[in-house]
Amino acid sequence: MEIAQSLQQVKSSYIREILAAASDKNVISLAGGLPDEKTFPIDLMKPTLENLANMPEVFQYGSTAGYTPLLDFLNDYFQLPETHTAMITTGSQQGLDLIARAYVNPGDKVVMEAPSYLGAMQVFGLVQANIVTVSQTEFGPNLDELEQCFETEKPKMFYAVPDFHNPTGVCWSLETRQKVAELCIQYNVAFIEDAPYRELRFSGEALPLVSDFCPQNSILLRSFSKIASPGLRIGVVTGKTSYLEPLIKIKQGADLHSSVPMQALLHGLLKHDNFETHINTICELYKSRYDVMYAELEQRLPKSCVLKPVNGGMFVWVEIPECDTFELAKTLLTNGVAVVPSPVFYPEGSEVKAALRLNFTNATPDELRVAVKRLADVLHML
């Protein structure tokens, strides 16, 4: 049986392939965006886990929009406006998929920064969107390019990760956030804000969400994979009710609802008195690992490489001299370190800068030191 044309155009995830290769015990992986398993708040979840046996109602079919006690909690926790609502998804990735299926017709234009999140490119590729890119600066998207793009291309939506961008780690400035919101309102472009790393800030002051400045023109995706556990597969989408109603309709046909026991477990975790302390502990751990990696990169990388600091998230982006980055990644793999080369973060046909995405959250300080040395030794041979 022939597969659908939309799927034929979507490449398999290089990251998943390299993660499989990186499972070799002799390879130190800086490739995936994996949280450290030691950070999973299992102790905080134990009371709810043990009590699930006394909650038979959560093992029944549930509401497509989500487990009501969790939705009520999140409505207060996020202080949603009266015009807005929340829906629970099986990871924020499903939320992105639902948005694409609900709103994007083949050929519709979707704006993304280049480079951008691979998973988003795959989702928009499956609905045959026309992905239009703008370049990125250290403060966020190039605003002149973005306005020109909105004016000439008339896109339906702009997708972005403003807090600790995947893959570059860039955090948008306050001025950029305000200007992007202003442009989205002016040109009637929906802003799709993906915020999976927002809580992982380990320096600097937290900034308002972009969607705070354009609440009637935006949909916000949040994830609990990085601050609770990826295995829970729980995300939440918020936005004005009229924006979310089509998503709920599609989700009903896709999976009826996300796992209710997992939603109840997350609800218990979020209500726990020590949950905020847990997040602070994660941030402190990741900062310590980032500091080790950054110091090693600064000391060991060739001067031809460009390295910029980040204030949170999970990734460091290293620009390198022009080369075949896929071949470089393969060479690095044979030398015992896994990385992700930059082309996978650009749509087909885009101008690609040679760079590597490095993850610092799932390796020990000693492993990070060894991995950076292996990386630098190969780069010095370019």
List its traits:
382 residues, Aspartate Aminotransferase, domain 1, Aspartate Aminotransferase, domain 2, eight-stranded mixed sheet, four-stranded antiparallel sheet, 13 helices, 14 strands, 41% helix, transferase
Fourth CATH level, the homologous superfamily of the largest domain = Type I PLP-dependent aspartate aminotransferase-like (Major domain)
SSE order, as H and E? Answer: HHEHHEHEHEEHEHEEEHHHEEHEEEH
CATH fold label of the largest domain: Aspartate Aminotransferase, domain 2
* β-sheet strand percentage: 15-25%
Shape: globular
* Adjacency order of strands in the biggest sheet: 2-9-8-7-6-3-4-5
Helical/strand content category: alpha/beta
- The low-pLDDT segments are none
As an assembly, this protein is single chain
- Output mean pLDDT: 95
* CATH class membership of the largest domain: Alpha Beta
- Number of helical regions: 13
Query: N- to C-terminal separation?
Result: 46 Å
Write the layout of secondary structure elements.
Blueprint lengths: L4 H4 L5 H8 L6 E2 L12 H10 L16 H10 L6 E6 L1 H13 L5 E6 L3 H9 L3 E8 L2 E2 L1 H11 L3 E4 L13 H13 L3 E5 L23 E6 L11 E6 H15 L4 H12 L3 H26 L5 E2 L7 E5 L5 H10 L2 E2 L1 E2 L13 E5 L5 H15 L3
Helix pairs in contact: 3-10, 5-6, 5-9, 7-8, 11-13
Can you give a write-up of this model?
The chain is an alpha/beta fold and 382 residues long. It has two domains: 140 residues, Aspartate Aminotransferase, domain 1, CATH 3.90.1150; 228 residues, Type I PLP-dependent aspartate aminotransferase-like (Major domain) (Aspartate Aminotransferase, domain 2), CATH 3.40.640. It is 41% helix and 16% strand. Strands 2-9-8-7-6-3-4-5 form an eight-stranded mixed sheet, with helices on both faces. A four-stranded antiparallel sheet has the order 10-11-14-13. The chain is globular and about 60 Å long. It starts with a helix and ends with a helix.
